[in-house]
Design a protein that fits this description.
17 helices, 6-stranded mixed β-sheet, 486 residues, extended, 3 domains, Nucleotidyltransferase, domain 5, single chain
Length: 486
């Protein structure tokens, strides 16, 4: 994580998001905080269960005049994905909902028109001169989640329009912090993002609970969402109303409103509870990426501390412990005891970049990277829209094409040999029974017939069938003179 923050600081300066002040401290101006954002997905279910945990919780039947020891729930296990986030200036990103659908084509997809009654507009300035209202959007796919294609579409239709002034030059770029979810490594998406002026910056793998601002916001959001779900569930059960809650009503629990069945009013917005300006600024302050305080390295219990990774109170304490050990063991030795038996050394951590920018080593590692972990290792915590990534992917594609050409050449040369040998055999005009096994195999291969495992009598019968059919030998793709030159 220290490596990530070092790289993040370097990129902020280089890409024009920050500068050094007179005290050599990194400063991100307020107008640049508006252009740094973080987005992430979360799973929403309407039965009180957790996604990917084996379905909804059990339903316990009870009598209303007896003590209630169970938990009544809405009967619906369909999951919906919500992707949301915020800017470092505290503005909430208009959320997007991805619903499940069984429709096989876009034309056959449908949605209850009442869905929009629970989806308010979200006010934000982002890359404009003045704030305006932005719509909450929704989409569909088979699993109700994000995949490569839908994340790319989400970026094009939801994120890019927020910054119509974005360009790939100082002062106009937009930085997007992301996790290792679907679509983040798709080269077409990265190329389009870079062209439009968007920098895609990954977090350290498996640290989203500490380094992702949206994760901090989803905590209170999910708590309020669960409270709203429980309140609505109780209202429907107590009023003897149907307990089935269709997915299109998820907006009621996220943004508040009136249940059209029970008339129960969900009065508190879970989205406001988790993504208000104040909550967003608090989330960014906890992570310490923007403003650049590195706060999570010092204040988060899940972050391992080692001497040498900073000049703070923890490091000072470690150094004092080292000094006390040195003095104590020296005292024991000076009085005739084996003080070395108690001597220990707190080793300082030497931080080095994983690979150097624009180096052949880095480009080779990127070319071989297959997932977020290996890509992060190759990049040395840099962003996914850097020139090195495109060079690495180009090398990977060239290597793949090279292997395909080698394979094609080997097959073509083999075909050339078969054609030449077959024509030589046919010129001899032998009788069928006079061909040996090898000659029969060549002739049948000339007609693209598999000969593996065949005995001579089978080869003879198969060649007789070919002769009786009167069909010409099919064309075999060979290695042309022009290809040999290339």
């Amino acid at each position: 994580m220290k490596t990530w923050f070092d790289s993040w600081q370097e990129e902020l300066i280089e890409l024009g998001f920050a500068h050094y002040d007179e005290k050599n401290k990194v400063v991100i101006p307020p107008e640049k905080l508006e252009r740094i954002l973080n987005v992430d997905e979360t799973c929403l279910v309407l039965d009180g269960s957790k996604c990917n945990r084996g379905g909804r919780p059990e339903v316990i039947f009870y009598l209303p005049y007896l003590p209630n020891l169970g938990k009544a729930t809405i009967k619906n296990s369909t999951s919906t994905t919500m992707i949301a986030g915020s800017t470092a200036a505290g503005e909430p990103i208009p959320p997007h909902f991805q619903f499940q659908t069984r429709a096989q084509t876009v034309d056959s997809q449908s949605v209850n028109i009442n869905l929009v009654t629970f989806l308010p507009n979200i006010k934000g300035k982002f890359g404009l001169e003045e704030a305006k209202e932005w719509p909450v959007t929704f989409g569909f796919n088979a699993k109700g989640g994000m995949d490569n294609e839908h994340f790319k579409e989400y970026f094009k239709t939801n994120i890019a329009p927020l910054y119509p002034d974005a360009e790939d030059e100082h002062g106009k770029r937009v930085m997007i912090k992301v996790d290792s979810g679907p679509g983040r490594l798709e080269i077409e998406f990265l190329a389009e993002a870079r062209t439009l002026g968007f920098i895609i910056y990954p977090s350290v793998p498996n640290t989203t609970a500490v380094t992702q601002e949206t994760d901090q916001s989803y905590g209170p959001f999910k708590s309020k969402f669960a409270q709203n779900l429980k309140a609505l569930s109780d209202a429907r059960i107590n009023g003897d109303f149907p307990t089935s809650l269709p997915p299109w009503m998820v907006g009621l629990l996220v943004f508040c409103g009136t249940d059209p069945v029970s008339q129960f009013v969900v009065s508190e917005s879970a989205f406001e509870f988790g993504f208000s300006r104040g909550k967003n600024l608090n989330a960014w302050s906890k992570c310490g990426a923007a403003p650049l305080t590195r706060c999570c390295l010092e204040n988060h219990s899940q972050v391992r501390r080692e001497i040498g990774d900073d000049d703070d109170a923890t490091n000072q304490m470690m150094q004092e412990i080292q000094m006390a050990n040195d003095i104590s063991t020296h005292f024991l030795k000076s009085h005739g005891y084996n003080g070395d038996a108690f001597k220990v050394t707190v080793k300082k951590v030497e931080r080095v970049s994983v690979t150097a920018k624009h180096s052949e080593e880095r480009i080779n590692m990127i070319a071989e990277a297959t997932n977020h972990g290996s890509m992060w290792q190759a990049m040395g915590a840099s962003h996914y829209t850097s020139d090195d990534v495109f060079l690495g992917v180009a090398k990977r594609n060239n290597e793949r094409k090279k292997k395909e050409l080698i394979k094609k050449k080997e097959m073509a040369l083999k075909n050339n040999k078969i054609v030449q040998e077959a024509r030589t055999i046919l010129v001899q005009a032998k009788g069928v029974e006079n061909y040996n096994i090898q000659e029969l195999k060549v002739l049948l291969q000339y007609y693209k017939i598999r000969v593996t495992g065949m005995k001579k009598n089978e080869l003879v019968d198969k060649w007789k069938d070919v002769l009786q059919s009167g069909v010409d030998a099919p064309m075999m793709e060979g290695w042309s003179v022009e290809e040999k030159k290339n």
